[in-house]
Amino acid sequence: MNAIEKIEVDTLVVGSGIAGLQSALDLADQGYSVAIVEKAPSIGGKMISLSKVFPTLDCASCITTPRMASVSHHPRITTLTYSTVDAIKREGKTFTAAVTRKPRYIDEKECISCKRCEEVCPVLLPDEYEVGMGAKKTISIPFTNAIPQLPVMHPEHCIRCGACARACPKDCIEFLQEPAPVEIKAKAVILATGYETTPMTAKKQYGLGKLPNVISPMAAERLLAPHGPYGRVLRPSDGMVPGSIAYVQCAGSRDKSIGIPYCSRVCCMYAIKQAILLSGSLPIADITIYYMDIRAFGKGYEQFYNNARAMGINFVKAKVARITEDEKHNPILRIERQEGTSGPEEVKHELVILSQGLVPGHDASSFGLGTQNNDFGFVKLSDEMVSSAVTAGAGVFAAGVVKGPRDIPDSVVDAGSAAMEAANYMRKL
Amino acid sequence: MADAKKLAEQLKKLNELRGPVPQALRDQVAAQNKAQKAILEALGSGPKTAPELAAAAGLTHEKAIWYVAALRKYGKLADVPGKGDYPKYELKGGDAK
């Protein structure tokens, strides 16, 4: 086995979503060296897969890709993708992180990103980047604007035909590659491990993810993205242009039955944003949002909501008790309106999006850095009134949704705060 | 291009380490090849919708649209401009290999 790769930097950033990218850039631009570790094959986090952002309707990748490129080319930032942070130890004033580079089964230094391996690979897999709606190959570059543009092979799906190796002009396929340990020493740690959405299987009343036309909001983002799986908005059961679309709000938040009693803050706004975008893509579609309360919490958000209403999007204050489907996979919602005195009713739509809530992406307390979690598994701050980044662990700071649900502008501001707190801490060492 | 001898050695070593390729995976790839071939052959007679391709290739509607997305991504078929509930697809540049 090769010797352990050792990296020594000022700050270790765990996670490369928009918060991790921003804090890494802020620190590196001040002269600090940074290592950023990302478990996925590309940096960019959740934001790079979104279509547009609210309330400005700016293209999400137009905001994210420049930061991704800046991080990847920054002389003071070392980027480790497709790598996991297995443990972080505190030794005096230094943190030592044990990181594993997962094998991509290619020579990363030699690969020229020509995609010939992907073109010739004969095995198709559901593409998780497209939330399963599209396909990728057993060896493939994760997505169009991924950074780095390096393919990953999934050996459990490989039929060992050798086509990729024969097609590679640089002879860089390495079928026998193994995980490589990396040791990172740093003076401060920024946790930016973000979120996952509540799983489709969370609620049996909503079909446990088995109804093909009841999809997640991340799937809806991909349908709306210009380079999405179908290149337009179609429903996944049969490729039909949906004429009637519904959003079920609070489908993974404010629900004690699934252990998520809190409001996830952003779901109202992303649903309204998607509804506005859908009405642009499908001008004759009926779009309904079933909601409990609308949380339009930021600057210009209330106006955004009012614009959606004015555009003809139906807002129905109702609880959705159950979702079933007919023989053509049209979802049927059993609803009870919260206004008026009517009883339960059943409404048929052609596509339904569950506005799922946000849950922690990683249990940050598992690193053993002295940070504490709040009741819901997000990182607890030492004193929210004093700092939006300082945790109970000395030298450990938090950026973005790792602290609790928040939107993109708040995550970016937070990331700046985490970088500033980390810089202050390191200056005093 | 890979050295044929080196590649053969790597694949042999891989078989020793991981055992033979599971039959289920081989069957899955054979089914994928059959489905893609059937879809491309069906498009040989003109543009079709996903349900029409499903019927022609003996697939569920859900599988058919997934293969359409895959073939579209890898440049084998293209969207046909037009209106209607179900968009049509056509072979791209006559490339039906």
Task: Explain how this protein is built.
- The complex is a heterodimer of chains A (429) and B (97).
- Chain A is an alpha/beta fold and 429 residues long.
- Chain A has 3 domains: 5-102 and 179-194 and 361-428, FAD/NAD(P)-binding domain; 104-178, 2-Layer Sandwich (Alpha-Beta Plaits); 198-357, FAD/NAD(P)-binding domain (3-Layer(bba) Sandwich), CATH 3.50.50.
- Helices cover 21% and strands 24% of the residues of chain A.
- In chain A, the strands form 6 sheets. In chain A, strands 14-20-15-16-17-18-19 form a 7-stranded mixed beta sheet. A 5-stranded parallel beta sheet of chain A has the order 4-3-2-12-22, covered by helices on one side. Chain A has a 4-stranded mixed beta sheet with strand order 1-11-6-5, with no helix packed on it.
- In chain A, α7 links the parallel β16 (286-291) and β17 (314-325).
- In chain A, α1 (18-29) crosses α2, α1 packs parallel to α8 (408-428) and α5 packs parallel to α6 (267-281).
- In chain A, 52% of the residues are buried.
- The model of chain A has no long low-confidence stretch (mean pLDDT 96).
- Chain B has a single domain (23-91), classed as Arc Repressor Mutant, subunit A.
- Chain B has 4 helices and 3 strands.
- In chain B, α2 packs across α3 (50-57) and α3 packs across α4.
- The longest helix of chain B is centred in the middle third of the chain and has 21 residues, at 23-43.
- Chain B is elongated and about 55 Å long.
- The interface between A and B is large, with 38 and 41 residues.
